[in-house]
Design brief:
Number of helices of chain B: 11
Helix content of chain B: 40-55%
Order of helices and strands of chain A: HHHHHEEEEEEEEHHHHHH
Oligomer: heterodimer
Shape of chain B: globular
Number of strands of chain B: 10
Structural class of chain A: alpha+beta
Structural class of chain B: alpha+beta
Number of helices of chain A: 11
Largest interface: A-B, 46 and 43 residues
Largest sheet of chain A: 4 strands, mixed
Number of strands of chain A: 8
Strand content of chain B: 5-15%
Strand order of the largest sheet of chain A: 1-4-5-8
């Protein structure tokens, strides 16, 4: 496929045309987003007809900045993050033309929310150990799926799920997996809130009982699901990137503010810990900024794989210090009401919530232990630990 | 204003020139052999670095025969010197003394800068290596009238290599020929950066600055020195990480490379993260100094409060993960540990720099 050489100037012209034809002030939000998608300005590096123009990915920033300046509505990427960050690149890489045309537009516009049906109670860090079964009903041309998924964000609002299931238990665990696009409204899909340590239910358990998935909703070849899933996971970890944080942004902000405003809470021991964490938070900010500058300069470094580790540790230590600094107030919790938030809101709640929610930062999206293995093996080139599960048929593994 | 945290192409060129010189002439066996003689400095190596590569005059303006480069380039040189624990007086003469002289701005200081840039002289500030930015300046030396100086200063780094000492007295700043000082070598923890007690007995000096100018010049030099020391610590930490990774990949125990054990992999992955973070902190300090950023003192304090610890941790991990080999005299790990630990005291401890962060970031003590 030849890549068109769209320039920043041409993109600016297209943005101007879009804004002229659909003035944000008088255009319905969804109509505007549809028009933006159809103009190839949704994700400019996607192919023409699929919301893009085959332009260099770096030019997206030009489009976003101009649209933002014009007061255009955005597609609420926070709410549809899993679809944008994980489902879309995987569908683009492995989907049929039919699948791409069917799914990418409503995904980007946010008319259809996506969730990710990967983790299971028995397959978290060892994701390839998953046990959810998919059996082909050849006569009907449908797969019949049974199993249980867990930690599923957005499952209660999702229209579609990306699903990996075992289609051949006789093969070693990485080989017998197939990737599907699962209709969350199909009979047999049951979503139950999973209440967590904070009292909220951000996540869900998803029970799949005799769910029928047409073969046309298979993504990639039968048995090739692990390779497809790796594409999804690689995109999951393409994190931070463009984000710029001001000095004393993030979790250190509320604790520093409390320190300044409440002299009666200060102790020498807490002062030392606060300064140590303040310095580490500033260094983490600079490391993220350096990574961003590397990406802009076209020299991406491996630092990105480490940033999540750093932020997880810092968030936990800083929020732990904050609860302690608050002394007697630290004994109180703001609200244990069971809620179903659509996103994580670290700053909208109090210190106890931050402390508890930050515990998830070293587990979600790959545990810190798994990420340390990845850094050790892929960045430092250290050998993997010997393992005996790679060549055994899945059905013979200890579970 | 955004800090530029990357390396420019010219900085990478400078790095590779310094690195290849050090690879040829400053391998760890050579460093150790010289350290054992009690005279770690290698004058021939210094001459090539100072004049061949022009490192001595990096911070000296072109009109005084220097390179007119910035702290960013000096930082890159220090990274390489740290990586090789090179026993050369770059930090003392080409950074600290040079910055003090730049702050004096007199014909005499200009002349001395010209000589430093040309490599014909080496200059050491007669100050304790532990003296930190923001700390009270010592008044150990006094002027007995007419520029004859008396008193003594301990822990003066690289004094034994210097031709000229910069002496801070209550009446101003003086250039004193090293030959007219009494130098008593101390036994240093860091074998690659010799220390001496400098004693002056009515030594004659040339006055370079009045007291106020002198104190401001020294304070500025200490800030720069502390900021750039972070780059030396970065280079040192990087060597320790790289060598340790190399070792655990090749060393077999229990019928597998020890680097395949998760306990070791996680330690090294964490260390890699620390080193990557130290790079951002050290680059930030160098760039803030180079551009005269208003918050340079905070950026320097952050870099020092962070990088000292990373360098020590890297050197300690290097010794530990090399096992028994790491405890031996012939393996260079100990040179790095000694430099790292000494560097953590040089130009202010982590605790001192955290205290500065508390001031700058308005996080007061109880």
């Amino acid at each position: 496929m030849t890549r068109s050489t769209v320039t920043a100037e041409e993109l600016s012209n297209r943005v101007r045309d879009l804004l002229a034809a659909h003035p944000p002030a008088t255009t319905d939000r969804t109509d505007f987003l549809r028009a933006r998608f159809d103009a190839g300005l949704a994700w400019v590096h996607y192919p023409e007809g699929l919301g893009g123009l085959g332009a260099p990915r770096t030019l997206q920033a030009v489009v976003d900045a101009e649209l933002e300046a014009a007061g255009a509505p955005d597609n609420d990427p926070r709410r549809i993050g899993i679809g944008l960050g994980m489902a879309a690149p995987t569908i683009l890489a492995y989907g049929t033309e039919e699948q791409k045309r069917r799914f990418l537009r409503p995904l980007w516009i946010g008319e259809e929310v996506w969730c990710q049906l990967f983790s299971e109670p028995g397959a978290g860090s060892d994701l390839a150990a998953l046990a959810t079964r998919a059996v082909l009903d050849e006569a009907a041309g449908e797969w019949v799926v049974d199993g249980q998924k867990v930690w599923t964000s957005s499952a209660h609002t999702a229209r579609w799920g990306i699903l990996i299931a075992r289609t051949d238990p006789a093969l070693p665990k990485h080989q017998g997996i197939t990737y599907f696009l699962c209709d969350m409204h199909a009979p047999g899909v049951e979503v139950r809130p999973l209440r967590q340590i904070t009292g909220e239910a951000e996540f869900n358990e998803v029970f799949l009982t005799g769910v029928r998935i047409p073969d046309a909703q298979r993504l990639g070849a039968v048995g090739e699901g692990w390779a497809v899933a790796r594409t999804t996971l690689m995109n999951e970890r393409v994190s931070i990137g463009g984000m710029r944080i001001p000095r004393e942004g993030g979790m250190i902000a509320p604790v520093a503010a409390t320190w300044r405003e409440r002299p009666e809470l200060r102790t020498h021991a807490l002062h030392q810990r606060l300064l140590e964490l303040w310095v580490e938070a500033e260094v983490a900010r600079l490391t993220g900024e350096r990574l961003r500058q590397q990406l802009v300069a076209g020299q991406p470094g491996p630092e990105g794989s480490g940033m999540k580790l750093t932020f997880a540790r810092l968030n936990q230590e800083i929020s732990g210090l904050e609860v302690e600094l608050l002394a007697e107030e630290g004994l109180a919790y703001d609200d244990w009401t069971m809620r179903r938030p659509e996103g994580v809101d670290f700053t909208g709640r109090e210190a106890g919530y931050r402390y508890l929610r930050a515990k998830g930062n070293s587990i979600e999206g790959g545990t810190s232990e798994i990420l340390l293995n990845i850094v050790a093996e892929r960045v430092l080139g250290l050998p993997p630990e010997p393992r005996d599960d790679k060549d055994l048929p899945w059905k013979d593994l200890a579970r | 204003m955004t800090l530029d945290l990357l390396y420019a192409e010219t900085e990478e060129e400078l790095r590779s020139a310094v690195r290849s010189l050090l690879a040829d002439r400053c391998d760890s066996a050579t460093v150790l052999a010289r350290a054992e003689t009690g005279h770690p400095h290698d004058p021939a190596l210094w001459e090539t670095l100072a004049t061949g590569i022009g490192a001595a005059g990096l911070l000296v303006p072109e009109k005084l025969g220097g390179q007119g480069a910035s702290h960013r380039e000096a930082a890159v040189v220090l990274e390489e010197l740290g990586r090789a624990v090179a026993p050369v007086p770059f930090l003392t003469s080409s950074v600290l003394a040079t910055e003090i002289l730049l702050g004096c701005d007199t014909p005499e200081s200009a002349e001395l800068l010209r000589e430093l840039a040309s490599g014909s002289r080496i200059c050491a500030p007669a100050l304790p290596l532990t003296l930190a930015p923001g700390a009270p300046l010592p008044a150990a030396l006094r002027d007995s009238g007419e520029g004859t100086l008396s008193g003594s200063v301990t822990s003066v780094a690289d004094a034994v290599a210097a031709d000229v000492l910069l002496v801070l007295a209550d009446t101003g700043l003086y250039a004193v020929p090293a030959a007219s000082a009494e130098l008593t070598a101390q036994v240093p923890l860091d074998l690659t950066r010799p220390l001496a007690t400098v004693t002056l007995r009515e030594a004659a000096g040339i006055r370079l600055a009045d007291p106020a100018t002198a104190r401001a010049a020294v304070a500025g030099a200490l800030l720069t020195g502390a900021g750039l020391l972070a780059s030396e610590q970065l280079g040192l930490a990087e060597w320790c990480l790289t060598e340790t990774v190399r070792h655990v990949r090749g060393r077999h125990q229990f019928n597998r490379p020890v680097g395949s054990f998760q306990a070791l992999k996680h330690r090294l992955a964490r260390l890699w993260l620390d080193v990557a973070s130290a790079r951002a902190a050290a680059r930030a300090a160098a760039d803030a100094l180079a551009t005269g950023a208003p918050d340079a003192p905070l950026t320097v304090a952050v870099a020092q409060a962070y990088c000292s610890g990373v360098a020590v941790r890297a050197a300690e991990e290097c010794v530990q993960l090399h096992g028994g080999i790491g405890m031996t005299w012939e393996h260079p790990a100990h040179l790095y540990l000694k430099r790292a630990k000494a560097d953590s005291l040089a130009l202010g401890t982590t605790g001192h720099h955290r205290g500065l962060v508390a001031d700058f970031a308005e996080l007061p003590a109880p």
